[in-house]
Amino acid sequence: MSGRSLDYTAKAFGFIEELDRLASPQAIIDAMERSFAQFGFENFIMTGLPHPEQRIESLVLLKKWPLGWYERYTRNSFDRHDPVIRLCRQTVQPFEWSEARNDPETNPRGQEIMQGAADFGMRQGYCLPIHGLNGFEACLSMSGPDLDLTPQTKPAIHLMAMYAFERARLVLAPSPRPNPLTPREQETLRWAALGKSAADTGEILGVTERTITAHIGSVCAKLSAANKTHAVAKALQHRLIEI
């Protein structure tokens, strides 16, 4: 791991430690604003994805959006046509807004929405889809005029975003739970949190890569996590593992 990558990892864990001391939604918003600004983000929204009978404003957990854009977006129900929201429903992988391709024939309002966001300084963006095994869908979408998105920064941003989401949910609706993970699952996830691959962890613990992959799959199922990074964030948030 390069020194630069270690710097980003340190920033991510520093952010996590800071969030653990916060107990209000506004404090979390302020911390996110400071920390994500390092990567060029100026605005973000953390929200559930609405069903047809729901309005998105009823599902927003935290936001730092230009007021004029938020009012326009919700008034016009832009979430029904937003290319970013549409892609968010189709993938569990983080993506840049530019990857949310829009077909003007099938979604004529998509370009209007993206241009409207750009008019408010939200020209580039990065979206973290969050899918629970119980059907829950949400996202953390962040934007700015000039973003630092590289193979080195994206893993740190991903971990920070997932942890922020879990922290916000905990603060807004606390729900203590016993630790459902076995000691070996906890150990496996600790190494994953430190950036080790399944092959690396298997070598460290003296088991096969396939065994480690199975442990991670079990952890994701128990925690209703979409992927390994999401599982790490949830486990850290709920004190199921310690680093």
UniProtKB/TrEMBL annotation:
- GO molecular function annotations of the record: DNA binding
Q: Where in the numbering of this chain does the HTH luxR-type domain appear?
A: 174-239
Give a Pfam family name.
Autoind_bind
Q: Which InterPro entries does this one have?
A: Sig_transdc_resp-reg_C-effctor (IPR016032), TF_LuxR_autoind-bd_dom (IPR005143), TF_LuxR_autoind-bd_dom_sf (IPR036693), Tscrpt_reg_LuxR_C (IPR000792), WH-like_DNA-bd_sf (IPR036388)
Q: Does the keyword DNA-binding apply?
A: yes
Q: Which CDD domains match?
A: LuxR_C_like
Record keywords, A-Z: DNA-binding, Transcription, Transcription regulation
A GO biological process of this protein is: regulation of DNA-templated transcription
Instruction: Tell me where on the tree of life, at the top rank, the source sits.
Output: Bacteria
**PANTHER family named in the record:** DNA-BINDING TRANSCRIPTIONAL ACTIVATOR DEVR_DOSR
This one is known as LuxR family quorum sensing-dependent transcriptional regulator
Q: Which organism is it from?
A: Microvirga lupini
